Fold this sequence. Notes:
Shape: elongated
Number of helices: 3
Strand content: under 5%
Radius of gyration: 22 Å
Helix content: 55-70%
Amino acid sequence: MINFEEELKKFHPSLEVEDAEEAIYNQDLTDMADLMVKIVKESKKTSGE
Length: 49
């Protein structure tokens, strides 16, 4: 059986849309495209181009 008092203690309100958007955009995330650009630039440096 669900203990509603215990469940309410665990509850954390979700972020508002603006707050969530800001939290997401403020993270420094590297994706595959960023990694590929970095690899190509490094390979050009080492090959002397």
